[in-house]
Amino acid sequence: MAFIPRPRIEQFRNIFLLVFLVLVVTIISTPLLVKEDFSFFEEETWEAIFLLAQVSLAWNIFRLYEKAVAAREEEIKKLEGEYQKREKELLETFTYLGKINVQISLIKDFMKKIKTPKDRSEMKKYLDDILHMAITISRKDWMTVRIINTENMQTVAEHRANSSKSKENDFKIGNREIMDMAQNKDLCNKQNLCVLPSAGSKPYEEKAFLVFEEKKAVDQEVLDFLKAAVNQCEVVHTLYVLGHGKK
Known about the structure:
4-stranded antiparallel sheet
């Protein structure tokens, strides 16, 4: 099927004005055109017929003009909607790139400092740095990393960090519930406490779990970073255990 280009709205307007002008002239001159007698109708009848035909033609041309204008306005609305959609996508892309740059900068800064903790105090400092990094990016009020012995369900170590604006908020969640949530891949429970397990550090039976509060759906980009954070916490703990043994 051949594509017929849509006439420009200016062309429709010019054609409409020209035809309208011609119709006005013919309407005015109709009495002159029918001044001679016709065999079938009176002069007034012919005038009425011509005027009716001319007005009908003018009305149909006006309707065509209106349809052309409406179609063009619809196209403009679609283009505006598409433009707004693209603009939103572009802004979201820039926002995402900004988040990624911040994350990369924080991770690089932390990785430059990390080494085998020389004592428990330094290990806690490393864990605190990781948690505060995660809090900054995810905008959470607090986070806790809990190291659990998966064999006997005992807590090996636990460290908590709070944002500068948040108050202390006691939460209760047992190791068994944490393990069950991790095994069932349930991110959050009914109390809005969320658990992210580390990827694991075999052959060691100790595993890190990140606990935080979330009252709405967790953004996937943030979730990916938090997974990396809990893995890093486990690495720090494992380095300490390898260097100093279990104390």
